[in-house]
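Ticket #4471: structure export looks truncated?
Reporter: QA, pipeline team
Priority: medium

Steps to reproduce: submit the single chain below to the structure queue and open the exported record.
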Amino acid sequence: MLKNVSYHISVKTGDIPGASSDSKVFIKLYGEKADSSKETLLVSDNDLGNYFERGRVDEFTLDTMDIGKINRILIGHDNVGLRSGWFLASVQITVPVQGRQYMFPCNRWLDKDEADGRVEVEVYPSEILPIEKLINYEVSVVTGDVRAAGTNAKVFMQIYGESGKTELMILENRSNNFERGATEVFKREAADVGKIYKIRIGHDGTGIGDGWFLESVTLKRLASKMKDSDKKKKKKKKKSDEEEEEETKVEEGMDVYTFVAHRWLAKDEGDKEIVVELVPEGESALEENTYEVHVLTGTVWGAGTDANVFLSIYGVERGDTGERQLKRSNNLNKFEKGQVDVFTIKAIDLGELKKLRIRHDNSGASPSWFLERVEIVDLKESTTYYFPCQRWLAVEEDDGQIVRELVPVDEAFVKKDSENDGQSLATLGLEQKAKSTTYTVKVKTGDKKNAGTDANVFITLYGSKDDTGVVSLKASKINKNKFERGKVDEFTVESVDIGDLKKIKIGHDNKVVPYEITVYTSDIFGAGTDANVFIVLYGSDGICTQQKSLCLNKREQRMYFERNSVNQFIVELEDVGDIIEKIRIGHKGGGLNSGWHLDRVAIRRLLPNGKGSETITFPCERWLAKSEDDGETIRELVPSDIFTEKLMKDGTLKQIEEEVEDPLEVHTYKISVFTGDIYGAGTDANVFLNIYGDLGDTGERKLSKSETNFNKFERGQEDTFTIQAVDLGILYKIKIRHDNSMISPDWFLEKVEILDETTEESFVFLCERWLSKKKEDKKIERTLYEQSYDGERNSLDDSSLSLSSQDSNANLKETKKSSLVKAAEEGSLIPYHITVTTGTEFDSSTDSRVFIIIMGPQKVQTERLWLDLPEWKDEFADGSVEKFSVWGLDVGEIKKVEVGHDGATPESCWLLEELTIVVPTKGVMYNFVCKCWLARDKGDGLTSRILNILDADCVNIGLKILYEVTVVTGDIEGGGTDASIFMTVFGSNGNTEEMQLEKNGDRFERGQEDSFIMEIADIAPLRKMRIRTDGKGTRPHWFMERIILKNLTNQEVATFTYGEWLSKLKNAKGSLVCEMPAVISDEQMMEDTTYSLQVKTSDVGGAGTDANVSLILFGEYGDSGTLALKESNKSNKFERNQMDEFSFSDMLSLGDLCKVRIWHDNKGIAPGWHLEYIDVTDSAMDKTFRFQCDRWLAKGEEDGQLIRELACANNDILELKERTSYEIVTVTSDREDAETKENIWIILEGKMGRSKEFLMENSSKKRRFERGATDTFQFSSKNVGDIAAICVGHCPKDGKKSSAKADVFWHVQEIIVTEMELCNKYYFRCNVKIPLRYKRRDYKVFECAKVTESFASKARSLVPVKYETIVVTGFEKGAGTDANVFITIFGLNGDSGKRALKQKFRNLFERGKTNRFYLETLDMGELKKVRIEHDNSGLAPGWLVERVEITNSATGVTTIFPCGKWLDENRGDGLIWRELFPRY
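Actual output as written to the record:
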């Protein structure tokens, strides 16, 4: 029996409809040494009545031989019974004797009719965790053969050995134990305590005839040393020898201890003790000792207690007494104010005492207790120990603890205290503190529905030496209401010397309470019902139970609720507190005669101390019927009177009947539903409504009888309904839906108004949206918040951070906004965008959950970031490309990435083709070409792999900054929109591309403020914003109030205000685009201006055009957007040798202009145009900019381009001089020993040469290079061009060799060099120590980390350049395209705009072919990326782009942009555009 191992098996059934099974379930374990037999799981340990029910965990124990480490399991069922199919979520097997816990995720159907039809499955462990290792004990208990020797009480036992003690073991099994003369054998797993010196055995004194005559106890366990040698020998011998050896060794390898008791454990026999400590036979050294315990209750008012008090005493060497109840005192009424109670405790001698633990169970009328001190007299040694306390043990006093650990102090302290009262409370506290440890316990409740609890929560901390005992977590330091959803509570636990923490045990007292519910059906005709009746109980503060059906099946429904019947049900429901404020009772209708006339409901429950009960009556006396009264089938009832029966101390029953004082009122709510006045707005579907207030909700009610219209919910009409419900308090949200039934269910709901007739308060819930499966976001349920409500809006059901849907911006679900913004501000969490490509081989796909872990240096890593698919996808399909945005820890420089999945069954194999990780806040993208299986039964059998970052392709994609974006929609009728909204932000250092603001369900609705996090290029300081809507959708008009951008790294806030419609109809100009200047700390960042344009057409034959001409201006602060040249001062525009003038008012001044992009649409009879120049006048700056062209924009002339970029002629004047001056700024680190008193020298290395050495001198008058200081120097020099690196050295002031000490350093943080002519800034991040050296050979070199090029410098380099663009199409079948292709090239100095790649009469982009195009633009500087796209037109638009090569014909530099991906709606990620980044 002892050699067998117990395998504790927890089987979790999935939480999906129909998951439960009635079949017999079996399991087989496959181990390293052997396999178990197929065992049927018949009797569970945590008997939940019906096994394998939906969402439940059933626990079983399998006792079998040691099979070694478990490799896999087989689990299945016999497919018998009505509902035989079963959805198995997971299996967990705990093997304490091995010290291991195995996890087997399964998540699949075992059902003939589902999936692959299998009813058994092999599962491999996904992880094996180490747990505390235990050993087997065999306990034999002999009950004496005397009259009434047996007991029905709960028997417990604890074992003490040289190396500690076991936890308390309960000795019970399924048979009737401890009968007279019987011997019971139990097998228990517990810690190995070494040589055993005593046991404690006793019972809890419950049940009838609890007295017990214990004869003896025998303990057996395997001897540890013998066991080891056994193992070694066994391995060498053959099977037959092994068996012989087993037989011979069994007795030798066993430790046997016998403990003789031969005594009563009974309250009314012998010494009346029900706990005894025994020593093993033959161990005479230890004797029993008697301890006399004096408990002194304080003299504070209300110090006494009626609770039960428990005490354990601890010795320095020899264990403890265990917890003993202090029952028999010298006083009849124990623990009264100022009283001394004396008790005796018998235990095996503990030696010197080190501490005691005293607690009470908080029972009785006044349990709070002020304990002065405890004195313990050791009668054998006749010494007295003093344990001062002087604290409350009370839930409502002090720190809320009802357990204290006390340590002994010298007698003098206690005596001194009694002489001069008052001063030494603190000193005693100090004595205690010195010997005790305070633990801070933080408990985080999960963020799931109903996650919180109102039960009493307990914790036990287990240390290497001892444990704290059960500590009640009563007083949270943070929240008044503890253990609420998503909250963190903090508690303190004090204990004396428990050693290093090993484990904790946490649980609660499961405040599920039995309620006896009696339902009285009225005695009137047709009062009975066969419907399914349910009930919900409400306590105070809106705490409520789950909805519970009173009948288990249809048969019971037919039996109960007959006319004039009284039906009683006993149901277990959550504890709603001391007061039941209301109940909701109703039925679902259905059946022949579902109408029901309910007279009243009575609910009886036990009083908290179990001494009696109370019955609460809820009168109804109304119909719950669709055809009677008001047609409601749900009623809310409030209590009328309470009948209490109390058991008094003298054994009599006291009966009290009282009326409920001011019960919750039943309020009448008038609900007005306004259907919109637009085409097709009305619905014939059934509409349901649930109203939520701060005191609870109404439950979902059907809006059936309109009081205003026979035909409800028609276009432009108002329908009124009345609902009666118990007072909901302040209403803050409603949920409204329809069931999509009948012919035209689509419904445009304008708003819902609710009037509480009792208080005459009215609440407005705006909607102005469709509830339709065909329109807008295709939803037929909406959650609407009260107009003035400004709390958290958890309108999204899913509050996870792992976002399944991803666009170019991580659009966070609002639910997490506040906590995420905090984390983003601290920089602890950053977004990671992950793209996963699944292979295309057979069986590549998986439906397991995929995760990723990102690792940085020194073991810094993110937690498991789960890549959860959106609801409509159930697997990573063959050839699919899935994109995710997750938030994880910022690990610094990424070193490794682990990717894997939790699938452990053979069929959950997955072929990972490619993995891309984008880290926007670092501006890098890593691309891993994996092509590896993650599967138990393929390749090397691993389901997770670690990829080294060195194997990835690393691409620089430009740094992004996290901004919190808040969009405010106007509170104006029809202000909300479902059009697509696009945003472009302009800053002093460039601009972003156009980014879409995701609608995400319910953003951009009337009167709302929507906040989310976006990644925006590093272009600050911000100057302006452009917003554009596409004017599409069912509600294309949008009233945009303002947008606020908050930079989460430096907290800078920019506000952009518009306050106008974006709409073709409602905007005076019909505009769908607006530009807004940034306002940062009350300063507008751009001036308003009027631009006047003069466009001169050349004096050349055929120069004029009738085409439509457009242009964009580019300047210091961004671009103007597209300006159409429509309204000229001439009636016929753009004629030969003509000057046309155009004016654009209400523009934002772009500062100095640098270029113009101008084009025409080639329409009309002779569209070719020869443009001479353009003059642009900015009225705010009073400055004119000339843009010379002198070229054709014509298909048939020159290079055939219809688009030209023109540089500003004003900028040519800036001739670069030979000499210039440099400003050098040094930042000394802010740390100890950073500063220096010596000199620093620096040399600049430029593209055009090297500067001389600049000496930055330190003088005693003007100290430089002090800790944390910023010093500025200026030097004139020849111009060295772009600075690539600097050399920095540290030399003595006096120039003497001797003063160069070895250990003098200057710690420099950063050096910034500014070239003063063009004002280009060069940043060098140093962060190193530079040693003091006499010789100039010893210096540090720093490369340039960042350049901010000034506008003047950029403008200078704007010269026209021809870019040769080569596009290579892939060689796979169907790689070519007939669609129209467009390219946009992005460089440091701007972009080319979207250009069509066309050539006359040529079939372009054919499979395996290379096409060459020439684009002329102004020099864009270093090329950063290319966007290539097609318009998806033609027969086979899908296109495989191999790569794009672009050569700057002026410099001859070629940049290659590899692609290798499809632009095809039907392949991979379905995109028909790609952003390509250069590979050098």
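Status: closed, not a bug. The export was complete when the record was re-opened. Leaving a note from the reviewer for reference: The CA atoms of residues 856 and 894 lie 5 Å apart.
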